[in-house]
Specification:
Chain lengths: ~300, ~300
């Protein structure tokens, strides 16, 4: 496209690492069970497309997340490749032991910035949940693992409304103190707008959290995911969580609350000349293939625009 | 939300004028005819919600756009209010005469940045279409009207691919020379990304087009509408075209190619503290009401998240 100029945006990085959360965060919200073989093939296809960080599954008890009851079998089937990280969510020490037995080298814990969601999701206070995570993070780090700390409800909470920045900074810095190697700031109900993204990132770096340890995890509930991501990148963030095809969120709910689609982000980053190492065409093919297995269309705008329906 | 900070983004304006294009650009793409009474009530509701620029209809021949064959009756039924502009699209001198007879004070003409789309949409070359518009614009300005010049395919064209910046600047400056009081830059197939938006705006201002005469008109085909708008605002643009509920584009096509939804933009601008004068709640109610008449859901994320289904 000679003569079709693009102007550099201030502060944009040259490259972005995408943390692909589809196999865990996406599939755990599917109403119908997905075959273990399909899950493993999904992960292989994501690696084929160029992903280097693929959140593979969760060691949460099947009573709570029956969709991922086959976590161990999925990990056994995937041919884990050198240079690709396959983080696994672990809720507690028991989950960590299971992960270590399977040779996992990257884990994630899932914390909340608000008391209401800590109670609803973890059945304990924020402080008690951090006490629960402390030995998990410590043991994992001793074993040489990376530990991603998810921090949910960073901008808004369905019970508490807008979440004060200082409260998020407090929980975030405690997760870093416990040994998390990365923080993923979640806009779990999708209410953030670009100015509030900038405010929280500024407060976190002012509190001493290095920007290169911060990832962002936006939901597209109000259509703000890409604009929020753009502002985060301009603030120095270089790791973004997305899911192939916008997987996640309940397709049967009137309000889609799913993850930002990896393809929509790739379209933007390719246009901006920011490298990701991920092949958009292969990823769209993967999302169309998976949509066939889920018997529904992807909510991603780019997948709908570029994808050809395939046999499931 | 005390303590829930928002950081100012560089270059953002304090206020934005939304040009609501739902009644014309939206409804002209509806596969089924919409009652004249519904159209008039839609426009009244948009004014009630606080809109001050509402593109009301089009004087295009009913053979080409049967959906707007009742243009004159719609204009007669709407109680046009002081302080609200109701631009009407006019294709030629005949259309202008009809508009003037109806007391219209704001018109728009629809040009193309590419030869392929000029042929497909206007059945003539770019130069010939400008020759056709020249007397329309001249007569309208003599009559004291404002004239908006739509410039479509500013970033990409389905036949020609990416459109060279110089080509867009050439047609844009000719429209301004002919007397257009405002230019609306259309990303008709939705392929723009933020860097290309900035490049075109920079080239236009370098060519002498004042930024306060430029509006942007993004489609959400690849999910980029809001991020592109944000960058345009940071470049000094203060007029943005959107449609209530994301009206426009064919709901039956696999790839939605509709307008950016006004509600999604309002959510972002409210979060950023940028004034629009439009009430989000009233607008969502309007979009839900209209969706009932169209027998389908709005594609807007914000409408789906906030709207309660109503009787049609």
């Amino acid at each position: 496209m000679s003569g079709c100029g693009t102007a550099p945006l201030p502060g944009l990085p040259e490259a972005v690492t995408i943390c692909e959360v589809g196999p865990r965060d996406g599939l755990q919200n599917e109403p119908r069970p997905v075959d273990t073989g399909v899950k493993a093939e999904f992960i292989e296809r994501l690696a084929d497309a160029g992903h280097r960080v693929i959140e593979a599954t969760s060691m949460v008890h099947p009573k709570w997340v029956p969709q991922l009851a086959d976590a161990e079998e999925v990990l056994r089937r995937v041919d884990r490749r050198p240079g690709v990280r396959y983080p696994v969510l672990v809720p507690n020490e028991r989950g960590l032991r299971r992960a270590l037995d399977l040779g996992v080298s990257d884990i994630a814990v899932f914390a909340s910035a608000t008391e209401s969601f800590a109670q609803a999701n973890l059945n304990r206070t924020v402080a008690a949940s951090l006490d629960m995570f402390a030995p998990v993070i410590g043991l994992a780090r001793e074993a040489g693992l990376t530990v991603r700390g998810y921090l949910s409800m960073c901008w808004g909470d369905p019970w508490e409304g807008a979440v004060p920045t200082a409260q998020v900074v407090d929980v975030a810095t405690r997760l870093i103190s416990l040994g998390c190697t990365e923080l993923s700031l979640g806009d779990t109900i999708g209410v953030a707008t670009p100015g509030r993204v900038g405010a929280l990132l500024g407060a976190l770096t002012a509190a001493g959290v290095p920007i290169d340890r911060i990832a962002v995890h936006f939901h597209d509930t109000y259509g703000q995911g890409l604009a929020n991501t753009l502002v985060a990148l301009q603030h120095g963030v270089t790791t973004v969580d997305t899911s192939a095809g916008g997987l996640g969120g309940c397709p049967y709910a009137r309000s889609a609350t799913g993850n930002l689609a990896t393809e929509d982000l790739l379209w933007q980053l390719e246009g901006l000349g920011v490298r990701t190492g991920v092949d958009l065409t292969k990823l769209v093919q993967t999302s169309v293939w998976l949509a066939g297995h889920l018997s529904r269309e992807s909510p991603s705008a780019v997948v709908r625009a570029l994808g050809e329906p395939q046999e499931g």
